[in-house]
Amino acid sequence: MPKSLALDPKKMKEAEAALRTQAAKLLSEGTVTVFLGHEEGWDGLPVPFFATTPEEAKRLVWNPLVAFNLAKYLLDRLTGEEKVGIVVNGCGSLALDRLLKDRRFPRERLFVVGIPCTGLLDPDKVLALPDEARQAALEGGKAEPGLFLKRCGWCDAPNPVVADVVLGEKVPEEAGPQQYPRVEEIEKMSPAERAAHFKTLYEKCIRCFACRNVCPACSCRECSLDQWEPLWLGKATVPSEQLMYHFIRAFDVAGRCIRCGECERVCSVGVPLMELNDKLMKDITELFGVQRPHVPADVEPLGQWTEGDADLEAAH
Question: Of 190, 246, 249, 297, which residue is least crowded by CB atoms under 10 Å?
């Protein structure tokens, strides 16, 4: 976890200027043909932006509201041989590394610009603030802890884990064991209480698939949930189908979730989707001794077998 979540607007402005310069240089020299970053949207929030010229690189922004990961947009550029530039912070680089470890995009076609992170604000919460408070949070660095993204509270990878060049000084890290307080509360429930708990949560789901679409661990060419043969999931929004969808999704990313919390952040009806993801990560830690299960590895614990696996010991 970062030692401080206090924003430093001055450093972010410096990073933004350096990012524009770096992207313009890469494009002008032909090192990349397109650079993936953010530009300011019509409502003031950053939106994904593909710069293709040095002049367009001047539109790139880096501010406390660049909340979403860009890595999954690379899947739209799988065809061809173009080299793509991309900017990432700590959790953004975990998303990128997830795609790389899953061999979903060739590393040789990437130029990665990393920027260390001291925390990002939740765009929805910031937009809901009065104008004066919003300006103070964005420009003065006076943001209340509750305004930060949830993932900032448990982040232990504020510095990019994948980068060809890093802009700015690294942030101190404290990479201790991850904590899952909400999971511990759920584990104390009886089986019937847990079933009722998750049924109540998932009944709200409208099956918009935003959680799947934003997840860097969900990168299959064809999702099993979209298949007609075999038909894993019906179209009715009834509790049984909702539970089936969420359990399939969670178990599909088990051992590969980077704990970015994007699925929960983009949920249109506010389902706390990280509860189940965190439960699976907690189990992986306890069963396989992996202290940071959200950090991509060359071979994930659920992708290998050893004689010391917990299930084998239990069988004996």
Answer: 190
Q: Please name which of 110, 230, 227 lies closest in space to residue 163, comparing C-alpha atoms.
A: 110
Q: Count the neighbouring beta carbons within 10 Å of the beta carbon of residue 312.
A: 11
User: Which of 21-30, 88-97, 221-230 comes out lowest in average pLDDT?
Assistant: 221-230
For the full predicted model, state whether its pTM sits above 0.70.
Answer: yes
Question: What are φ and ψ of residue 120, in 5° steps?
Answer: -130, 150
Give the pair of three-digit tokens for residue 64.
């406390």
Q: How many C-alpha atoms does 141 have within 13 Å on its Cβ side? A: 12
Residue 299 pLDDT? 84
Q: Where are the domains of the chain?
A: 9-166, 181-309
Q: Label the pairing between strands 34-40 and 110-114.
A: unpaired
pLDDT for position 213: 93
pLDDT tens, residue by residue, 44-82: 889 999 999 999 999 999 999 998 889 999 999 988 889
Cα 123 from Cα 63, distance rounded (Å): 11
Q: How far, in Å, CA of 177 to CA of 222, rounded?
A: 35
Give dist(CA 98, CA 96) in Å, integer.
5
What is the dihedral sign for C-alpha 24, 214, 123, 91? negative
Say what the pLDDT of residue 315 is: 45
Rounded to the nearest 10°, the torsion over CA 284, 106, 164, 214 is -50
User: Do residues 89 and 63 make contact, with C-beta atoms less than 8 angstroms apart?
Assistant: no
Pairing of strands 34-40, 46-51: antiparallel
